[in-house]
Design a protein that fits this description.
Strand content of chain A: 15-25%
Shape of chain B: globular
Number of strands of chain A: 5
Structural class of chain A: alpha/beta
Order of helices and strands of chain A: HHEEHEEE
Distance between the termini of chain A: 52 Å
Oligomer: heterodimer
Largest interface: A-B, 31 and 41 residues
Number of helices of chain B: 8
Helix content of chain A: 25-40%
Largest sheet of chain A: 4 strands, mixed
Strand order of the largest sheet of chain B: 11-12-10-9-6-5-14-15
Strand content of chain B: 15-25%
Order of helices and strands of chain B: EHEHEHEEEEEHEHHEEEHEEHE
Number of strands of chain B: 15
Largest sheet of chain B: 8 strands, mixed
Structural class of chain B: alpha/beta
Distance between the termini of chain B: 15 Å
Shape of chain A: elongated
Chain lengths: 106, 289
């Protein structure tokens, strides 16, 4: 399993060759979660990955539509024989902040 | 020295947000800059300024920070270290006029009120009853040693701010479990450490703000009773939070700042008079760093 960005999270170390080339479904979800975090096209951590048979379901939130669309690209690049159900949504922080009076410090 | 206005404002108005996770494709993340400057005396950025810790990402946020007409004080978060370019991230923010704290402190003067801010990224390790120890393998000792280093510097910095009207501890990792509720308990040791709370309680503060806990709760307290607020933007749901903290500390020398502390004073009244974007040389009236 590879990531497009050579970031610290997913650098190959001295893994056996089949570690990345033959994904093990029992660990696929957590590996894909790390790839999505490290890939500069997505780079989001509030995502959840679920492997349901041949389908990779990704849910959670991202900051932009481009990052949401990139989820499917990144997953397919890593497991090209699977389908992607992309349920991630775009969320932006909006609206005014209501001030809070903070008291009670010792 | 700063020409301190004698009429103290009743509260320090502190805006804060963490985990804005700016990428090169990000829209502006800090909301309405006019509202921010109107409603707050200072903006605190509680780490994870970027997604992957690159200079290019930091430049995007720096452009937004440069147009803000209020002082900005930041710490880095774990994402800002991801590309081993944390120095470049820090430099980009400083070029935009932000003060980036890393175990040290700064003082912002708002009207007649001194707001002392001690900042550290902090680190993990867990909480009482479920924490790591500096025991065993060297890497485990190094893990806890980093947290201890962060906590010790924070404590020293807070003590150096003892004369400020309001003292705030700014960090990325959480000092308490209460603001992590909503996150999976299994990852608490990666989200904060009790050592940070102990540093706050030993050093003294009126408010702690932190990020890192996207799914965490908003409010908590240290065992010593200091209010703790999780300001991770995903937890806030709005661009930033604003806290009004009573300025109750008696001043001892006319500035409210202990003379021995390394500090930078920033006069927000002077800042607001400026209409041009702020630059790195903004109103630095005293620098001892």
């Amino acid at each position: 399993m590879t990531a497009s960005g050579d970031t610290g999270s997913t650098r190959r170390h001295d893994w056996p060759d089949d570690w990345h080339d033959e994904p093990d479904d029992r660990y696929l979800a957590v590996h894909l979660h790390e790839v999505l975090l490290a890939d500069p096209r997505v780079g989001e951590q509030d995502l959840e990955v679920e492997v349901v048979g041949s389908i990779i379901r990704v849910s959670g939130t991202v900051a932009t539509e481009a990052r949401r669309r990139a989820i499917a690209d990144v997953v397919i690049e890593n497991v090209p024989d699977r389908s992607v159900a992309n349920d991630a949504t775009v969320v932006r922080a909006r609206g005014p902040a209501e001030p809070e009076a903070v008291e009670g410090a010792p | 020295m700063t020409d301190v206005v004698t009429a103290a404002v009743p509260v320090a108005r502190i805006a804060a947000v963490g985990d804005v996770h700016v990428g090169t494709d990000s829209p502006w993340v800090l909301g309405d800059p006019m509202a921010l400057a109107r409603d707050a005396d200072v903006l605190l950025l509680a780490g994870d300024l970027t997604r992957l810790g690159t200079e290019a990402e930091a430049e995007v946020l720096a452009r937004e920070v440069a147009r803000l007409a209020l002082p900005v004080v930041a710490v880095l978060g774990n994402h800002d270290y991801e590309s081993d370019a944390e120095a470049a991230v820090r430099a980009a923010m400083e070029r935009a006029g932000a003060i980036v704290l890393d175990g040290d402190a700064t003082v912002v003067v708002a009207g007649g009120t001194t707001i002392g801010i001690a900042g550290t990224p902090g680190f993990g390790g867990g909480f009482q009853g479920a924490s790591g120890s500096a025991f065993g393998e060297p890497i485990m000792k190094a893990f806890i040693a980093r947290t201890r280093e962060m906590a010790a510097a924070l404590c020293r910095s807070l003590r150096g701010l003892a004369g400020a009207d309001v003292r705030v501890a700014l960090m990325h990792y959480s000092p308490v479990e209460a603001t992590l509720r909503g996150e999976r308990a299994e990852i608490y040791p990666f989200l904060g450490s009790y050592l940070l709370a102990e540093a706050v309680d030993r050093g003294g503060a009126d408010l702690v703000v932190h990020g890192h806990a996207h799914r965490g709760a908003r409010q908590g307290r240290t065992p010593g009773g200091v209010p703790v607020r999780n300001v991770a933007q995903p937890a806030l749901g709005c661009p930033y939070a604003v806290f009004h903290v009573p300025a109750v500390r008696a001043r001892d020398d006319g500035t409210g700042v202990s003379a021995s502390h390394d500090r930078v004073l920033v006069d927000t009244e002077e800042t607001r008079r400026r209409s041009a974007p702020m630059t790195g040389d903004r109103t630095m009236t005293e620098t001892a760093r």
